[in-house]
Amino acid sequence: MNVTLLQPNLHWENPTANRAALEEQIFALPQATDLIVLPEMFTTGFTMNAAAVAEPMNLTTFRWLKQMAAHTNAAVTGSYVVKEADRFYNRLVWMEPDGTFDTYDKRHLFRMAGEEQTYTAGTKRLIRHWRGWNICPLICYDLRFPVWSMAAGHAHPGFSSNAEEPAYDLLLYVANWPAPRRHAWNTLLQARAIENLSYVVGVNRVGEDGNGNPYSGDSAVVDFKGEVLFRADENEAVYQTELSLDDLRAFRERFPAYRDADGFTIDNSSI
C-alpha cells in the first residue's frame, strides 16, 4: 500500500486557505497513492472556537474530501470541526473514491486545553477495510491511551473480541501535537507499533497556531517491530511510502504475541 502523509503549516481558523493549500499539494503528488492522511483539525488548527468554524456534515469540507478522493482514486482522511444536533465534534472522516465514507469522533479529549468543555467525546472506534488492509484511524491525544488502541483482546464495537487475529494492520494517528511534547509523540508511536504488531503512521502539523503553540512536525512511519521507516523534520512536507502487508503477516506468523493478549471490555458509562 502506498501511503501519503501531508504535514502542513496550517492557517489559523481559515478553512478556505487550508483546503486550497492542501489541494495544491494533493494535485501535485508525484505518483499514485492508496491513502492520503491529513492532520487533526486540518481546516483550522487545534481550536476551541468551535462555534465560529464548525460545519455540518455533508457541507464544504465533506464535499472537498469527496472530490480529493475521487481525483486521486485514494482514501483520504483527517479530522475537522463538525456540528451535529447542537454538539461539536472533533470528527475524523474517512472518504473513499466512490463516495463511501465513515466517521470517528475523538474519544480522548485534551483537558489541558479545555477540549472536553467544547467537544463531545466519541464512544466507538473505527476500522475500515481498504484494498486488503484493515486500518484504524485515531486522533492525537488518543495516542496516550494504549487500551483504546489495542489490536487484540478487545470486546467492544469495532474491536476484535478475541486474540486470534489482530483487528487491524495499520494504525493511524492524525494530530496537532505541540513541540514541547515531541519526545512523547515519537516514543508512543513506536510503542503502539511494538505492542500491536502493526504499522503505525502519525501525521502532525508544523508552524505556530493562533495561541502561540509551536509544532515540530515529526510525522512518522513506524513498522511492526517499532523501527522508524521515516520521520519528517520541522518543515512542511509531503511524503509517500510503501508498506508491505506480506512482510507484516510473515512477522506476525513468526512472532504471534497477539495470541497471548488479555481479553477485556471498555466501560463507556463515563463518556
Which consecutive residue ranges, at least 5 long each, have pLDDT under 50? 157-161
Shape: globular
Q: Give the biggest sheet.
A: 6 strands, mixed
CATH topology: Nitrilase/N-carbamoyl-D-aminoacid amidohydrolase
Please write the CATH class name: Alpha Beta
Q: How do the helices and strands follow one another from N- to C-terminus? A: EHEHHEEEHEEHEEHEEEEEEHE
Query: What share of residues are in beta strands?
Result: 25-35%
The helical percent reads 10-25%
Distance between the amino and carboxyl termini: 35 Å
Widest beta sheet: strand line-up:
5-4-3-2-1-15
Treating each run of at least 4 consecutive H or I residues as one helix, how many helices? 7
CATH architecture: 4-Layer Sandwich
Let me know the average pLDDT.
94
Task: Return Rg in Å.
Answer: 17 Å
State the CATH superfamily name. Carbon-nitrogen hydrolase
Total domains = 1
What are the key terms here?
globular, alpha/beta, 23% helix, Nitrilase/N-carbamoyl-D-aminoacid amidohydrolase, single chain, 271 residues, 6-stranded mixed sheet
Describe this entry's structure for a reader.
The chain is of the alpha/beta class and about 270 residues long. The chain has a single domain (about 1-250), classed as Nitrilase/N-carbamoyl-D-aminoacid amidohydrolase (4-Layer Sandwich). The protein has helices at about 15-25, 50-55, 60-70, 115-120, 145-150, 180-195, 245-255; strands at about 1-5, 35, 75-85, 85-95, 100-105, 130, 135-140, 155, 170-175, 200-205, 205-210, 215, 220, 230, 235-240, 265. A hairpin with a 5-residue loop joins strand 11 (about 205-210) and strand 12 (about 215). Helix 1 (about 15-25) runs parallel beside helix 3 (about 60-70). The longest helix has 15 residues, at about 180-195. It is globular. The termini are far apart. The relative contact order is 0.16. Residues about 155-160 have low confidence and may be disordered.
